[in-house]
Specification:
With about 425 residues, the chain is mostly helical. The chain has helices spanning about 1-20, 25-45, 50-65, 85-95, 100-125, 130-140, 140-150, 155-170, 175-185, 195-240, 260-265, 265-290, 295-300, 315-330, 345-350, 355-370, 380-400, 405-410; strands at about 75, 75-80. Strands 1-2 form a two-stranded antiparallel sheet. A hairpin with a 2-residue loop joins strand 1 (about 75) and strand 2 (about 75-80).
């Protein structure tokens, strides 16, 4: 009898870890486990103040009637996020007794963590990804749990809206996807890294008129969340909320400890990174849209009167997650909280390569190592770049394979 029980348990475990059709059950069990784990973290691990009080000071200025963006600031400096951030964290300000009830704020972020994970799991289950990837995302990263429930950063909030938008894109809810994507951008500007891929998807599947109407929807959302700030000081809002020239501190960089500080601060270095970003992003989008004839074909689809739903779910997510990955790979600087910008997308991106499984796990664990070294060192930064290069090379190699995209389309549909 004991042998039978053991066999049943082993069979069940194998199914929950390996069978994509059972991934929804794996996701449910993991979410239950995460409830307990996050409760334990909040109760037992000390909270660390980094930006929460500054967030509260910034939104308190708005609550007190200040709408001139350059005048809004906290202990860490001026407010540098768009209007959506203000309204979301103003809500948290009211719920947490002017930001003083830290424990309640932590439990709210536990809820946000679970919502974010559920949205990510929904994408992976829909794409029939191996369930063990859900386990990896759930249990491996202490850093990600910390960013949510011990640090209370705004980056996770932007990603929640983003993953919601991705689910809406997969459900062909184009207008809602545009609105929610714009809300994500209104919380933090890094979400724009997904924009080029979303433009390609819209161009192919919607054509010019509907793509333009969805673009207008994103603009309207930005205008609505920024309305009182634009009315008070439009230029001040735009230059603060969308400051592309913002300089980062070398001491906090995770990815560029491999170069001296004077190079890190050099504008020529920034321009080189921008050029590499644009080149590899264009190459990736061109290769990923080969079924349409590459980027020239995408342009033809945009102006065609007959646009069809012919991008599979897998390729849709590959375009979005790949575009974001390349933007992060060539970022001028990455801070520790930025890990959530791509942590939950990495397993999917890596599994679209043809790298050996051992190497896939090695790069994921290498990236995890790099983000958990504090302060960052030349070795940890070099490890991060090496893993990024391996992933990008594997991704481009896979996309270059004959008829790969076509096979993926058929398998997905």
């Amino acid at each position: 009898a004991m042998t039978s029980v053991v066999r049943w348990a082993v069979s069940l475990a194998r199914s929950l870890l390996l069978n994509p059709t059972h991934a929804i059950y794996t996701a449910g069990l993991l979410l239950l486990g995460e409830c307990a784990l996050n409760f334990f973290i909040v109760q037992r691990v000390p909270y660390t103040e980094i930006d929460w009080q500054a967030y509260m000071q910034e939104v308190e200025g708005v609550r007190n009637g200040t709408y001139d963006y350059p005048l809004l600031k906290g202990d860490t400096g001026p407010l540098v996020y768009p209007g959506g951030f203000v309204w979301f964290f103003l809500g948290l300000y009211e719920l947490t007794n002017s930001g003083t009830n830290i424990r309640l704020a932590q439990y709210l972020f536990v809820f946000f963590y679970l919502v974010n994970l559920a949205l990510v799991f929904a994408i992976y289950v829909r794409l029939k990804m191996p369930p063990y990837l859900l386990v990896f995302m759930s249990v491996v990263s202490y850093r990600v749990h910390s960013i949510f429930v011990l640090r209370l950063f705004n980056d996770p909030i932007a990603m929640i809206f983003l993953f919601c938008a991705v689910n809406l894109v997969l459900s062909r809810q184009w207008s809602w996807a545009s609105i929610v994507f714009s809300l994500a951008v209104s919380v933090k500007m890094n979400i724009v890294l997904f924009g080029p891929a979303l433009a390609v998807i819209f161009a192919v599947q919607l054509g010019l008129v509907r793509s333009f109407s969805n673009f207008l929807a994103t603009v309207v959302i930005q205008l609505l969340v920024a309305a009182p700030f634009l009315q008070e000081n439009a230029w001040g809002y735009l230059t603060r909320a969308f400051d592309l020239s913002r300089q980062f501190f070398f001491v906090w960089t995770v990815n560029w400890k491999v170069v001296p500080e004077h190079i890190f601060l050099d504008r020529r270095f920034h321009l080189l990174l921008l050029a590499l970003h644009v080149f590899f992003l264009g190459l990736f989008l061109h290769l990923a849209s080969r079924p349409e004839g590459g980027l020239p074909g995408v342009c033809k689809k945009l102006f065609s009167r007959t646009a069809r739903f012919d991008i599979s779910a897998t390729r849709t997510v590959l375009l979005l997650f790949g575009s974001n990955f390349i933007g992060i790979m060539f970022a001028r600087s990455l801070h520790y909280q930025f890990y959530v910008w791509y942590f939950h997308t990495l397993p999917f991106v890596v599994w679209q390569t043809r790298l050996p499984h051992v190497l896939r796990w090695a790069v994921l664990l290498g990236i995890e190592y790099a983000w958990n070294v504090f302060p960052a060192t030349p070795i940890s930064s070099a490890t991060l770049h090496l893993c990024h290069v391996i992933i990008l090379a594997g991704l481009l190699h896979a996309l270059l394979q004959p008829a790969l995209a076509g096979k993926e389309e058929k398998k997905d549909q």
